[in-house]
Fold this protein.
Amino acid sequence: MRENTVMSIIEENNRGPSEGFRLTARCKAAGCAGKLGPADLAGVLERLDLPTHPDLLVGISTGDDAGVFRFSDDLAIVNTVDFFTPVVDDPFTYGQISAANALSDVYAMGGVPRTALNIVCWPQTGLPGAMLAEILRGAAEKAREAGVIVVGGHTVGDEEVKFGMAITGVIDPRRIVRNVGARPGDALVLSKALGTGILLTAFKRDALADEYYQSAVRSMTQLNAAGAAAMLKYDVHAATDVTGFGLVGHALKMAVGSGATIVFEESDLPLLPGVLEQCRAGMTPGGGVRNREYYAPNVRISDEVSEEIATIAFDPQTSGGLLIALPEEQSLALLSELQSSGHRDATIVGRVTTRGEHPIEIV
C-alpha cells in the first residue's frame, strides 16, 4: 500500500473518512469515465466542416487515434488529448492511468511521445490540494517512464474531478500507422486483455476482490510503448488502441475504413481475471450499454457466442491494448515479441476477411 493513498491524505488533513474523499464518488455519471457515447459524438461531428490542409496527414475523417501534421519530408508531429473522471480512488494511480491512456494514442500511430500538458478539473472545495499533487505526481512518473517531459498545463474549477493530458509526439510521415488499411488475410493481434470497464464498475460498487483490482490496475498503467516499437518492425497494415468505444467500436472503424470485415474468435479473446464473474453479476458500465446500442447493427454475433463474451466485446476500456492488423505469416513473430516485452496477455484474436454483410463478426 502506498503511503500517499486517499486515506492517508484524509488523515493528514485531520478529517474522518467520508464519501466526499472517495475520488470515484465525485463522478456524477456512475460507472462512466465521462466519455460521450458514440451516438452523441457522431451527431456532433457530422455537423462540422472538416479542416483540410496539404500538410494535415491525419485528421478526424476516419476517427483515427491522433492527428498528424507534417513539417518536412521526414518529420511530422502527432497530437492527441484525453482526460476523464476518476476510475480508481488512489490519486497517484489515477494519475498514472490517465497518463498511460493519453500516451497510448501516439503509440497507436507508431509515433514517439515527447511532451505533455496536464489538464485538470478540480472542485474549489471538498478535496485537499495534497490529493491533486498526488495525481500530478503519478502522471509525471508515468511520463518519465515514457521519456516524456511535462511542460505545463491548465486548471479549471469544476464540481467533478477530471484529469488527463494533451500529448505531442513525433513521427516519420512516411511511416504513419493508421486505423485503416487492414487487408483480407491479415491476422489481428491484441496486446492487452479485455474487461477494465466491467471490473472498474464492480470496484465502484465495492464488489471487486483486491486481486482482480490489482490486475486491472497493472494493465491500465502499462504503457503501449513496447507494443508500438515491436509493431514497427513488421508490415503492419493498420492499428488502433482499444479504449472507450470497446473492442467492437474501435475495430469497426478499422473494418469500415479498410472496406473489410473483421472476424473475432470468442475463444481467443483475452480476458482480465474476474471479468466473466463480474459480467455475470451484472457489472456492465453505462458506456458498454451505449456502445452496444450504437454498434450492434454492424455486428453479427454467432448464436454460439456466450452473452458474457458479447457484453465484454462492447466493454469500454481504459488504457487498453493495441489492436494490430498485419500479414498472418508475421503474426506469430510479433506475438512472441509482444509477450517477451511484457505484454503477457497479447493474443491473436481474429482475422480480416473480404467485406461481408456485417463489418464485424464474433464467432
In short: Residues 1-20 have pLDDT under 50 and may be disordered. Residues 148 and 290 are 34 Å apart (CA to CA). The longest strand covers residues 112-122.
